[in-house]
Every structure is written in C-alpha cells, then in structure tokens.
Amino acid sequence: MNSFEFQNPTRILFGAGMADQLGEQVKSGGWKTVLLVYGGGSIKKMGLYDRVISQLQQVGAKIVELPGVEPNPRVTTVRKGIDLCREEGVDLILAVGGGSVLDAAKAVAVGVPYEGDVWDFLIRKAQIQGALPLGTVLTLSATGSEMNGNSVITNWEENLKKAFGSIHAFPKFSILDPTLTYSVPADQTVNGIVDMMSHVFEQYFSSTPDTPLQERLCESILQTVIENGEIALMEPTNYAARANIMLCGTYALNGGMISVGMQNDWATHMIEHEVSAIYDIAHAAGLAILFPNWMKYVYRERIDRFVQFAVRVWQVDPNGKSDEEIALAGIEATRAYFSRIGAPTRLADMGIGEEQLNRMATETVRFGTVGSFKPLNEQDVKAILQMSL
Amino acid sequence: MNSFEFQNPTRILFGAGMADQLGEQVKSGGWKTVLLVYGGGSIKKMGLYDRVISQLQQVGAKIVELPGVEPNPRVTTVRKGIDLCREEGVDLILAVGGGSVLDAAKAVAVGVPYEGDVWDFLIRKAQIQGALPLGTVLTLSATGSEMNGNSVITNWEENLKKAFGSIHAFPKFSILDPTLTYSVPADQTVNGIVDMMSHVFEQYFSSTPDTPLQERLCESILQTVIENGEIALMEPTNYAARANIMLCGTYALNGGMISVGMQNDWATHMIEHEVSAIYDIAHAAGLAILFPNWMKYVYRERIDRFVQFAVRVWQVDPNGKSDEEIALAGIEATRAYFSRIGAPTRLADMGIGEEQLNRMATETVRFGTVGSFKPLNEQDVKAILQMSL
C-alpha cells in the first residue's frame, strides 16, 4: 500500500423523496441566490424541475438558470454560467441532472472566483484555489460526480476534452433519490453500469502490492453492479436495484475511497477520450468496447490480479484450469456481460473503422505513455484499438 | 436499503513517516495554541512525544498539555482539558494516542464552546452545537475514532459509561502511520482486532433488506482483518499487515460508510459496557467473550445472514450441510479465531462469575430493549451472559 491523503467532505442525502429536502439544505446553508444548472429538459418532463423550483421558492431563494448543458459539457456553456454568477451575485450553484450537468456546474463553481479563463484549470495553466459552494440533485447513476471533485469539460474550438480534480469542487451536498432514475432509458442505464464498472477497473487493475482491503472493496462494487444491473434493466422501477446501483456509482468514484494507497491506471479512459473526441460516441459505449480488449492486452503483466478478478467477481471455477485460462475466462465474462446488457462490443458496432486509428493512437500518447498497470506507448494503443475494431 | 444521510469530512494522512506532516497541518490550519492530549506516557517511550513537540515548535505553536488520559477516559479529565482550553485560549486540540485519548479529546473539543457541563452531552441533556477543531495522531488500530464523531466517556462518580456522536466531533485531520503501531504489545493488538471486527458485526448483522453492497463492504473488512491479524501478531513490524489492519480499523467505523442505510444493532456493545463498568476489564475482552454467544442466541432471527457470513467470511463449505449447521460453523469459526489470537472466550477467563449477572442484565435494559437484529429484553441479556460464563 502506498502512502496517501484522503478527504471527502460531501454530505449525501440518499433515499426516495429526498429531493424534498432541497429547500432545507439551501436554507441551512444560508444561501440566497441560486444558479440552477440543468440539461436538455428531461427534468421538466419528469416533473423534477417544478419540484426544485418550488423548494427554492419556499425558502425565498432567487433563481438564475443555466439550462442546456450538453452531454459532453462545453467550456462555452461553463463560461456563460460563470458570467451569470458574477452578474447576479449567485452564492450557490445547484446542479440537477446527470454527470455532465454536475461536471459543468463544478467548472462554473471553480471558475467564478478566478480572474482568468476557466479553461486554464483544464490545461493546468492555473491551480484551483477556491469555488462557489455546489449542491447537486442526481438523476442518473453513473459517474460518481456527486461525491467527488472531478469534472470533464470539452473545448470544441480546440478539439480537446480535459479533466480537472480539486478538493474545492466536491459538492457541499448531493441528493441521491433512486426513484429519480426510474425513468432513465435502458441505453442510458446500460451506459451508467459500464461507466461505474470501468471506474472500478481503472482502480482495481493496479500494480501496487499489499492492498487486500481495497481490492475487496472494488470487487464488492463490481459484484453488486453486475447483479443489480440486469434487474434494473428488466424492472426499471425496482427500488432496491436502482438504489443499489446508485450507491455503487457513488462509491465507485468518491474521491478514491475504494483505492486509497493504490496507483490507478486510467489508460482506457484516455484512449476512449480520443475515440469520442473524434466520433462523438457515448463515453460508456467506448469504454465497453475498449475495456475487454485492454484487459486482453495487459493481463500478463500481473496475471494474479486477473485470476482473482475472474474467480471472485465472475465466479470462474479455477479447478483444472491454468492461470492463463482463468484470467481469460474472467475477461470473456466481462465482455459477455457488456454484450448481454446491450452495450456495444466492437468499434464496428458504432460505425467506426480503422481510418482514424493512427490519429487516435497518436493523440492518446501526446504527452507520453498512458496508464500504470502497463504503461502504453503509441504501438500499444494502436494494437488495443485494432483489437477493438 | 433505508434512506440515510452520510458525511465524513475528516482528512486522512496515511503512511510511514506521516507524523512528520503534523507541523504542516497545523500551519495550514492557522492554529496557534495547541492542547496536546495524550495518555500514560507510551508516546514518550516510543519517541513520538518528542517528534510531535518538535513539529509544533517548528511552526511556532504554543503548547498546552493534558497528559494522563485513562484507558476508559474520565469526565473529570475531560473537564480539566476544557478548563485548560479556556484559560490558555487553545484553538486546536491535538490527540496523540489510541481510541481513549481521541475520545477524551473529542469531549474536550465539544465541551469548550458549551456553557454547561460537558456531561450533559453524554446524558442527552444538551445537544452539541459546535466544537474546537481537533487533529489526531493515531498510535493504535482499533476504535475508528480517528475518522468518526463518536466518543465514549466514563463517569465514575455515577458509575456510568456513555457515548455521544456528532458531526462537529469529527477530526479535521488524522495522521495514520502504521509504523507507530509496531510497538503495540500483542494483547493490545488482539484487542484492536476484536474491537474492529465487533464494530463490523454490529453493522453487518442487520434486519434491513436489500443492502448487498454494504454487506460485501463489511465482509471485505472482516476477511482482511482476519488474514492480517495473525500476520501482525507473528511479525509486529510487518508494514503491510499493520497498514492493512489500520485501514480496516478506520473503515470499520468511519461514520457508517460501510453500513449506510442499514439499521445497526449495538446490543453486544451495550451489554459489554455493563460488564466493564463493574469489572473494569478491557472493552475488547468483553466483546470477544460476548459476541459468539450473542450470535448463537440470535442467529435464527435471520439465518440467511449467518449462512452468508459463514460461507463468505469463514469459507465454510456449505455442501451437504443444513443452514443451521452452516450458520453454527461460522459462529464457531469466529470463536475459534478469537481464541487462536489469544482473546478470552469465557467470562471465567477474566475471573467473572455469576454474582453480578442480574445487575448487569438489569442495567443493560434500563432504558428498554437493546439491539435491533433481535431486540433483547432483560431475560435475553441474562441468557447471553449465562452462556458466556
């Protein structure tokens, strides 16, 4: 286990009907002017918008709106939010939506007290020193953004998709109501499942020795997502399944609690960012395609971890099998699960051929090798993309 | 899963040599006058006292000392600390030691801004509204006090041992250096192992349905403690084993993260408090004796949880066994483990007979039944104590 620092100050309010606690949260924080950040309008269709507005009005808050946050949130939208906050004297940012909405709201939050352009934080030109307080009401189980300080923002002018992480960007509170995810369509439910499993993979496949607790915490989340994912897809209003998935999504990436002291990998995310930067496919679709192939490419680096993964997470029977066979059975079980729940398994499924393959590989390693489990150079990335065609 | 609120703002600094980060923590907090709280002097023997003092001096902090905190910390000592803070204008309380020292420091922290007597918080006569900031340097893996807002304080004048929990009492930072536990004697290492396992038991044996993630998180801690406990006892300076145990102790009771949305039990702790209130035995010794007997008394309430416990935590082979047999094998494995690491298994081992048995049972249920997995009345408690003789 490596040395580490860990802190996660976010207050979680979890359960059916918790959205009705919003007014109380705003009141007890003493906030007066709220920037309401949301996406394309699904929160209006589901009646959540009206509930939020009425909660805010009841506590006398002034409401400023930033609607229309994109699925891959854009820095232009973030800049608009920052301007609004400054003009209207906003003292609380409230994100109502999924990971993209939350990520955009975080970028607004850290951008307001900064004199330069918020994009500076994404390209590491400046360091985040503070933020407006942020609250969230989550409508999609996936990214874990509700309990971490991470944000991914896209800059289409420069064709760049970049991330930042900061202790200042953790939400002050996050309201997690599993019933708000009942109406999430099947494909987005699938994306959420793939997303949270991928977050765990990036932490679990690590070369750091002596981390038995962390490995088991990761396996706990994977097993629970795997079991409950299929139930939620068959029964979208099954409370227990939706609640279990929601909690898994949050714990999968809540500031690194499940992988403290472990070196993370994140190579597959970096490759996927280049795929979706060119083809604008859903992040999770790219991850579902790439991860089993990444696994096949790297498993020999530390076959014991892949054997453990196969046996503990997928209940592969190790009897009479070589380590190689066990490890490969676990990888195949991962691919088969993604396929079974309806995620794509090949780039061809998304209409992607080898035309841009070299460009994606080159961009992925622009700043050097990616990943730590097996550091990948351009040839490695190209090979994984080739396997994924 | 029940609805829940969860927040844990404590910053953790974990790893070998982390005690040398203390000065930086104090400096960055802007604190000037520190109340140094510690116990019987073991921190002087191990050289930690000098390191702490030198760190504090380097950042120019004024140091006020509260030494001599008892293994079962007394409210009289807490009151002394509160007086010192007020007289000297203390703005940071720094606890260096194990759970008792941390618990005493928390009580001082919440007592300073309160006009009445701190004992009011323990008997629920007043509610905690604030606290002085608290930092900790942990020297013993056991209670989890380093990352929660709980404190247990004893009042010998009234023969009462009571607990409080408050979000205000979470440490601002806790330094967890596994090498500081190298010199912990075997019996205290055993007590720590029993203590953290017992904390998980109180959460894991729950009648709340649909909590698969939380159950697995609990099992993850139990399995890791079980494996590493014996290693740490055989090789007291094995870093990996000490680090794994330390992390398990912290996660076992860090504000309820592993059991969010689950009703907890805590009956065994309440029975044990009455045993140690009369006989002044180590808390963990009482728990090691009582827990397997509590399990035997209650397992039929929800045999599936005990079957799962036996199979997943103790690898009991379920083939050809009835649920009853599997459950009992798991309970016996627990008892055998405690015995193997050197914990007592009968009250007789501690020289306790049936003389005070009725009194202990009566005191345990003074405010009604205890526990939730199976609510225990006086007869139940008496039966469990009888089984433990």
From TrEMBL, chains A, B:
The keyword Oxidoreductase applies. Residues 189-387 form the Fe-containing alcohol dehydrogenase-like C-terminal domain. Keywords: Oxidoreductase. This is Iron-containing alcohol dehydrogenase. Signal peptide: none annotated. SUPFAM superfamilies: Dehydroquinate synthase-like. InterPro entries: ADH_Fe/GldA, ADH_Fe_C, ADH_Fe_CS, BDH-like. Residues 9-178 form the Alcohol dehydrogenase iron-type/glycerol dehydrogenase GldA domain. Pfam families: ADH_Fe_C (PF25137), Fe-ADH (PF00465). The keyword Oxidoreductase applies.
